[in-house]
Design brief:
heterodimer, A: about 110 residues, mainly alpha, 4 helices, about 80% helix, about 0% strand, B: about 550 residues, alpha+beta, 3 domains, 7-stranded antiparallel sheet, 18 helices, globular
Chain lengths: ~110, ~550
């Protein structure tokens, strides 16, 4: 396929054209680490909210894990395909931290 | 980075598929073998070639075996750093004793957890396990490797890389990449249904490899998707998203405390010594209760919690042989009096879903046709990955040859090692299992060494023979290793005959399928590998003749 060698499209930011390898590492990092961070936050928020709604912990944990795994798959695909990488990092890292915060907050409120 | 979505998906499919494909190959192949893990165990440990046995009597068989159990010296040494002061000579405070068997097991597996005195972390436990013959309680030597359940199965989910659960993380990430590869593969091949019915074996190698890749990928797509997903879910709460032990620790502990209150099953010891009522009577009562509800009454799992303490209880779980869902239907008794504490209520909707999804993956049910479909699904996955490698190499090797690049050559050598090399390593462990002296100390470790040594040799061989790939020609290692597979598979079956006397005529006549099945599979593998090697030789001869005919024109 040799797509890695294809010239960057004209619309891509200059930094990506200058350092294609760095851009690739940043993208894979966003897909793997960003995706995992986002999924973690989602599982934390979903588990705590489901427990708050009256579900048993292990049921909540399982359901949240299912959602988390599927969310990580979507985040992974999106991170590879998205046009602007900074937006991917912002949504995955920022969103993940926010969701994890929700998890801890709900835990504190329930305590 | 990519101009179109399809381009991005194609890049993801190609490169992540290639890099993690080597891991996925192992996950699919050993997963397929693990479907018959207990049968490989019987083949590898001839002393256990007996019919499956039910859970034995506690008083007669299990209790004496439990009482003899202690952690291994290695486990004690590993624990030393976690303890202030000296280690005890014997661990007496039993956190739990448990016994596990399935409808395919002639032996019963015992597990024990002991509290560690003076441990730095409160609640630290040290573990022990043993395997006993349920007919007489005889303990099997613990250095005999259960090649199926003790090696192929851990290879499937964790590559036997135990350090910091590294293998489980690598396989888990590969499962995610499998899901991504399936999604991106569907995006790449929009004409999915036409390709579903397309296989052109006679066409150029590139085209037929791609056809087979698409065929095995699409036909088994629901299988691959479900197994990658449920595999991730089985480990999610323990390894991948362990929120209950980390971020949501408090929430988990509060829920556990409330649960203990509701169920009446104490979470902790009371610190007051107490006796033990008749466990066999509790088991009989549990079976009666299942039978009254029309459920198959085999005991799969027996647990004694907080042994010797007033808070002790006995849990009896049902072996779920009659449905896909992984069920327990646990019935719990007070250990000191034998009175019923609780019968697990019907599962919640979410728990039923969890039981179904995990049960679908772990297949504890009794259904041999379905079991074989799992093997076919797993092998289809392995073929899908292998043809992906072949396509990758075939597509690039002429360009690479023209450019003088070694890329295709390296990938091809790794592909040989992970396709034929993995089959060779698997046969290597089976052959070593039959060849090593019966009384060799740490025999199981030597068997594993034989596996890894064979694999490394296969990789070295593939690398050594790989030069033609850099010229745009096939690597003869494919053919040579196919011959080796054919020879080793026959050797394994013959060695089984020579060392145990259980040849096919005998095992087939007596209907002993665990060993007959493995032997038949070995013969089938030998025949298929021989046929493949023969075809590859014919092809290389044709190529040599063509090259010869073309030569004068160059001159």
């Amino acid at each position: 396929m040799a797509l890695a060698h294809a010239p960057a499209p004209a619309s891509a930011p200059a930094s990506q054209q200058d350092h294609p390898r760095l851009a690739l590492v940043a993208r894979i990092g966003a897909a793997v680490l960003g995706g995992y961070g986002f999924a973690w936050g989602l599982v934390a928020a979903a588990t705590s909210l489901l427990v708050a709604a009256g579900m048993g912990f292990h049921d909540a944990e399982f359901l949240a894990s299912l959602v988390g795994v599927l969310a990580m798959l979507c985040a992974f695909l999106w991170a590879i395909a998205a046009r602007r990488l900074w937006r991917v990092w912002a949504v995955l890292a920022g969103g993940g931290a926010l969701l994890a915060g929700v998890g801890s907050l709900v835990q504190a409120v329930l305590g | 980075m990519f101009t179109t979505f399809r381009q991005a998906m194609a890049w993801l499919h190609t490169w992540f598929g290639l890099v993690l494909g080597f891991v996925l190959m192992a996950a699919f192949f050993f997963g397929a073998l693990s479907v018959f893990d207990r049968e490989f165990d019987r083949w590898a440990i001839p002393a256990t070639r007996i019919e499956p046995q039910p859970m034995p009597s506690y008083e007669r068989v299990l209790r004496p075996a439990f009482e003899r159990m202690q952690p291994t010296r290695a486990a004690v040494d590993a624990m030393r750093g976690q303890v202030d002061g000296p280690m005890p000579a014997r661990f007496d405070t039993v956190a739990y004793w448990s016994a596990y068997t399935t409808h395919r097991d002639p032996v019963v597996a015992l597990f024990a957890g002991y509290e560690v005195p003076n441990a730095r972390h409160a609640g630290e436990q040290i573990y022990a396990e043993a395997t006993v013959d349920p007919r007489d309680g005889r303990v099997l030597p613990d250095d005999r490797l259960k090649v199926g359940s003790g090696f192929f199965y851990p290879m499937h989910y964790g590559l036997t890389l135990d350090w910091k659960n590294l293998g489980i993380w690598i396989v888990g990430f590969s499962a995610l990449v499998m899901l991504a590869a399936l999604a991106s593969g569907v995006v790449m091949h929009r004409r999915l249904f036409r390709e579903f019915f397309t296989f052109r074996p006679g066409k150029a190698r590139l085209r037929s490899a791609l056809d087979l890749h698409n065929l095995t990928g699409v036909v088994a797509l629901p299988f691959h998707f479900f197994f990658a997903l449920t595999g991730l879910l089985i480990f999610a709460a323990t390894y991948y998203f362990p929120l209950g032990h980390t971020q949501l620790h408090e929430l988990h502990d509060r829920a556990a405390a409330i649960e203990a209150q509701q169920t009446g099953l104490p979470h902790q010891r009371a610190g007051v010594a107490a006796g033990l009522a008749d466990v066999d009577a509790m088991v009989a009562q549990a079976r009666q209760r299942w039978e009254d509800k029309g459920k198959a009454g085999d005991v799969g799992f027996l647990v004694l919690m907080h042994v010797g303490d007033a808070n002790g209880y006995v849990s009896v779980y049902r072996a779920g042989t009659d449905r896909i869902a992984l069920v327990g239907d646990g019935i719990h008794f007070k250990a000191s009096s034998g009175e019923l504490i609780r019968e697990d209520p019907p599962a919640t909707a979410v728990a039923r879903m969890a039981e179904f999804l995990t049960g679908l993956h772990l297949q504890h049910f009794r259904h041999w046709l379905l079991r074989w479909l799992y093997v076919l699904g797993g092998l289809a996955g392995a073929v899908c990955i292998a043809t992906g490698f072949v396509f990758f190499v075939e597509k690039r090797k002429r360009q690479h040859a023209a450019r003088g690049s070694q890329g295709a050559r390296v990938v091809d050598a790794l592909a040989v090692a992970s396709v034929t090399g993995m089959a060779l390593a698997t046969l290597g462990i089976l052959v070593a299992n039959r060849l090593l002296p019966e009384d060799l100390a740490a025999r199981g470790d030597w068997e594993q060494r034989a596996f890894w040594t064979t694999w490394v040799l296969a990789l070295l061989h593939a690398a050594w023979r790989s030069a033609p790939v850099a010229l745009g020609l096939p690597n003869p290692a494919w053919r040579e290793q196919a011959w080796a597979i054919s020879a080793l598979a026959i050797a394994a079956a013959v060695l089984n005959w020579a060392t145990t006397g259980d040849h096919l005529l005998r095992t087939l006549a007596s209907g002993y399928w665990p060993v007959a099945g493995v032997d038949l599979a070995l013969l089938a593998v030998s025949a298929i590998a021989g046929l493949v090697a023969h075809r590859l030789r014919l092809r290389s001869r044709v190529r040599a003749a063509q090259a010869h005919a073309a030569e004068p024109r160059h001159a």
